[in-house]
Amino acid sequence: MGDAEARIHAAEAETLSAHRSDPDAEPTTPRVATLGFVPTMGALHDGHATLIERAREQNDVVAVSIFVNPLQFGPGEDYDKYPRQPDEDLALLREYGVDIVFIPELEVMYPGGEPLVRVSSGRLGTMFEGAARPGHFDGVLTVVNKLFNVVVAAAGPHRGRAYFGQKDAQQVALVQRMVADFAIPLVVCPVAIVRDDDGLAMSSRNSYLDPEERKAALVLSRTLALLREEGLSRGYAGIDVDAARERISDRDGVDLEYLEIVDPKTFEAPVENSERATALAAIRVGGTRLIDNMDVI
Amino acid sequence: MGDAEARIHAAEAETLSAHRSDPDAEPTTPRVATLGFVPTMGALHDGHATLIERAREQNDVVAVSIFVNPLQFGPGEDYDKYPRQPDEDLALLREYGVDIVFIPELEVMYPGGEPLVRVSSGRLGTMFEGAARPGHFDGVLTVVNKLFNVVVAAAGPHRGRAYFGQKDAQQVALVQRMVADFAIPLVVCPVAIVRDDDGLAMSSRNSYLDPEERKAALVLSRTLALLREEGLSRGYAGIDVDAARERISDRDGVDLEYLEIVDPKTFEAPVENSERATALAAIRVGGTRLIDNMDVI
């Protein structure tokens, strides 16, 4: 904490002195210290490392939060068994050169119990992951908004950047929507999915998979990669989504929840002026739910 | 705007120079410029003047917003006929010595239409005024949160105070709740109700009343004053709420919507450790809905 503050102050002092050294110089926009923020639920993996690296490249100070947020877990979901390894996480964060780590107890984030006033994610929060997990995105946005107010606001308005992995594409879309709708004075930076060598998108929940399940799960990323190839070579109309759905459903031990191609801003079917089209899917392998996505045009 | 910025910078410069003049001095908490913010829907009256005066006393810079927020009006409510008088308002604000005035067009506050992501006011938002006006408090909190992010955040965290009139007691409770639940880094300052000489609580909606209606409306504040007297002299148990309800209902031209005594933090019946108990009521006089409240212990 002391180091990080010193770094902010040093950056500001530099700005001030650069500004004052030559009173006749043209006024320039002062360079102020920026804060890069990576909110996580811990159980850090190389996907998180990539987010932190990006934050490090683009900012003077890097903050990471670790908080397994009960609001975003439904009844019967894996809140209790979600992997928690604070000691390993802290060692990694030290290694990554992170300046500020925020690991609040439940009572610090939600004193007096769960919050009464919350963020409501609207229609986009009821689709796909929101349909499978009612209330999930309200819980995500409620905690992310609060973390922004606690961690990023301290850097000052328009001095913060927040980093989110593109694996949770709907979360990225909703956080961007919230930042716009609430006029939160920071920038959301999505970061591309990081994959293991076999193609599986990195996720803390991959630790739930036994070797057989992990092998079965690969049908997800491989099918998305085929769709991407189809889209890039034959165009949007040449994509055979039904065949892809069958391919996943036919895999032993895998249940397909959904596979759709959407505009990743609206999560509706892409329209003529959509900038991107993304194939996104959720499967169940044993007791584990996995999601993944890839742009197809 | 230029003046206000200059004032913030001057205050900060003072702080810095005071800090640097004697390197051996004991470190003190630097005095930084603070911002007092009064969000309004315009049609300013002496109640607003009191909020602004308080903001002026307690802060270096005062900002006022004027925005008639459609999100907080239900279908069939008075959004279209709500009094709008920007020229008179601006003249008053100049007179009051306000530094920053924010009068956004609808398209500035809600570009692309109404926001998808909103603030949800929870159970407290469905009681009393929320029961009579479904969605009202979600709309209030959504715009207040956004105004905080636009206007107050610019001053920096923990440098802002926001002023709200106690007439809208439930609004005050919900904004305080939101600021706590969201960890918004500013302080909410409730300001006591301002009344006309006849006792009527000031409200922009009083302009809807004709002279007969205005006379009839006085039963509201007079009845609340009686309850307060009963409470102060005989204690909570000595308050006859039913008689008070009858007194209002018996007045020609007045319909009672509700009259209850509540803990103004929870809006539930006061309990042993409640700090305050407040009588709050809503009536209809002709086409106009009026609310008022008074502490009774």
From TrEMBL, chains A, B:
One of its GO terms (molecular function) is ATP binding. Belongs to the pantothenate synthetase family. Keywords: ATP-binding, Cytoplasm, Ligase, Nucleotide-binding, Pantothenate biosynthesis. One of its GO terms (cellular component) is cytosol. It is found in: Cytoplasm. Catalyzes the condensation of pantoate with beta-alanine in an ATP-dependent reaction via a pantoyl-adenylate intermediate. It comes from Rothia koreensis. It catalyses: (R)-pantoate + beta-alanine + ATP = (R)-pantothenate + AMP + diphosphate + H(+). Pathway: Cofactor biosynthesis; (R)-pantothenate biosynthesis; (R)-pantothenate from (R)-pantoate and beta-alanine: step 1/1. The active site is at 48 (proton donor). This is Pantothenate synthetase. Its EC number is 6.3.2.1. ATP binds at residues 41-48, 165-168, 194, 202-205. The reaction proceeds by a bi uni uni bi ping pong mechanism. Beta-alanine binds at residue 72. GO terms for biological process: pantothenate biosynthetic process. (R)-pantoate binds at residues 72, 171. InterPro entries: Cyt_trans-like (IPR004821), Pantoate_ligase (IPR003721), Pantoate_ligase_C (IPR042176), Rossmann-like_a/b/a_fold (IPR014729). Homodimer.
